[in-house]
Amino acid sequence: MFSQLLKRELLRQWRSRQDLLNPLMFFVITVSLFPLAVTPEGKLLTQMGPGVIWVAALLATMLSLESLYRDDYHDGTLELLLIQSDSPYLVVLAKILSHWLSSGLALVLISPLLAMMLHLNVNAVISLVISLLLGTPVLSLLGAVGMGLTVGLRQGGVLLSLLILPLYIPVLIFGTGAVSAAAMGFAYSGQLAVLGAFLFGGMALLPLAAVAAIKVSIR
């Protein structure tokens, strides 16, 4: 059942691929404009680059959350899936995984090019890719809970930001810390371990929280 749900979600995401391109373009443009707005000096960009890329990835993820439940909620499919499914957890997990595969993974794949533009060294680029691989799924998991609470609201974007931005801060801190440590030649396995703990803990608990949030919204 999970594979069928995932295939359905990926097909739905592909049909609305324009909604997925906008966050990706936002990510690229934001990072690309930063050297023009601040300074092209390589040393300063190396220091500020990890934070710039991670903040841009965080905001791009937030922009892509709107398509997570929207269409299925408005046509009643979301409520039907949760009621008829033996495991609502798998329904929501399939939606979250398809969201990450269609948006978060693209951010991870394009991040090395942007990192080199900001003069990050090889170790920093490697740590950036690994930290984004661990961190962006957590952003999608947390966003699924916030989106579940606001999916029934007409103007839920501001409320969604207020709900999930504070929850994103720990991921941002440890993700940026891992890349900054690698750029300075220090060990960064501790930060990655924390991100891994966030990911596995989030996979176990956050889809259940998202199911509860959606049920509150559709009542």
- Strand residue percentage: under 5%
- Globally, the shape reads elongated
Q: Helical segment tally?
A: 9
Could you give a short account of the major beta sheet?
none
> What is the residue-mean pLDDT, rounded to a whole number?
87
Structural class: mainly alpha
Distance between the termini: 25 Å
Q: Count structural domains.
A: 1
Low-confidence stretches: none
Number of strands: 0
The helix fraction, in percent, is over 70%
Could you spell the SSE succession in H and E letters?
HHHHHHHHH
**Integer-rounded radius of gyration:** 18 Å
What is this structure, in a nutshell?
The protein contains nine helices and no strands. The protein is mainly alpha-helical and about 220 residues long. It has one domain (about 1-219).
Describe the structure.
By secondary structure, the chain is mostly helical. The chain has one domain (2-218). It contains 9 helices and no strands. The longest helix has 30 residues, at 88-117. The mean pLDDT is 87.
Secondary-structure blueprint:
Layout: H1 2-15, H2 17-37, H3 42-64, H4 70-74, H5 77-84, H6 88-117, H7 122-150, H8 157-183, H9 189-218
Helix pairs in contact: 1-6, 2-3, 2-6, 3-6, 3-7, 3-8, 6-7, 6-9, 7-8, 7-9, 8-9
Key descriptive features of the protein:
9 helices; mainly alpha; single chain
